[in-house]
Amino acid sequence: MTTPIDGTRVLRDLYELRKIGEYKTGVHRPSLSNEHVMSLQWLVERLKAIDAEPIIDGIGNVLGYGKPTTVKLLAGSHLESQNYAGWLDGALGVVYALEAARVINCNDAFNAAAVEVGAWCDEEGHFGHLLGSRSFCGDVTESEIDAAINRTDSGKMRDALAKAGLAQKKRERLETGRYIGYLEAHVEQGDWLESNDLEAGVVTTIVGVWQFKVNFEGFQNHAGTTRMAIRKDAGLAAAKLCVTIDDCFPKAAGPRTVWTTGRLTLDPGAPSIIPGKAEMLFQIRDADSRVLARMESLLYELVADADRSGPCHAQVESLRKSQPAKMDERFQAALETAAERIVPGKHTRMPSGAGHDAQIFAGQMPAGMLFVPSIGGISHHWLENTSNEDIVLGAQIFTDAAADLLRQELAVSS
Ligand SMILES: [Zn+2]
Q1: How far is the CA of 228 from the centre of ligand 1 (A)?
Q2: Closest by CA position to 14, among listed 129, 111, 93, 120
Q3: What is the tens place of the pLDDT at every residue in 262-273?
Q4: CA 305 to ligand 1 center in whole angstroms
Q5: How far, in Å, is the centroid of ligand 1 from the Cα of 359?
């Protein structure tokens, strides 16, 4: 059964949000900037209009607590953007959650059920790692916030919270057992759906991300007078490892494993000096922790080989490991059923290569995620876009899945 949404209203909301911090065809709305705070207030006003009791909490999360009911679903995403980036990353999921709340909470058939809307601060990592959703789930200490620094301007998160008028507010905490689960929609940010002529993706797992630092130690020396045969060039050693990884990783990788050297720093980094040190930031992503473990061992082997064969020393250090997060089977089925109704035959199950707030919520309750196509697979760029038609279809799938999940729960509890 379809629970009809108002597609024009969904598009109007998204276009309004795009005006807040507009940059070319995208937005610049970093966490806790004036524009981000304006977008939070925008959401607060929309939630008031549906008789929710919205609050902005002490870490910049918006929570729209709904009417007192027995069965509640939590839905949302984030409102800040990457710097000078896309208009739909995050905003789409918040507006879908808002539309689902508007349609379901005001529907007599759902008297005993409600969708509650959340916008989680700093999913994009300006100050930390998924701080808003982790804070809501009780996984952020005061000292982590004390230490959080903006990666662009080095400003303290405490100062940004104070400037936003949030310093004195308490942080909201997830009440155990309050929700039947968490539902989030997002633009795919890749080109899988578009290249396969599909309209919707049901996320199976959110990939784990394992990050490493590889340090090379050579010998800094004169680039003109040092004979090639006796050099210990740390930069060259790092470059060689990149090539070796590129040769060896495909043999051990899963079908969707990806790996990236995101930063290579040479020290001292001058044209006439042979680098004495090099540092390489390396990342592996996969939906299966066994594959991640296999790739990790291979990385350690390759670094040990490089160290042994010289002339530079090489050492690898693990920086952070987020584990893959499985989406709930019943939530996947609800999204799939709704997708089959709205876009028959044009949907698929797929892992998410990007991190999302849903991976945090999956540790607390059943969670599900829906993807809509990204034109050209572009994201984290102001050219990010999705057609109006796909936006509206996605909103309908999302609301239908939310309604079905609530209906199932009502049937059980009655
Ligand atoms: Zn996002």
Answers
A1: 48
A2: 93
A3: 999 999 999 999
A4: 38
A5: 12
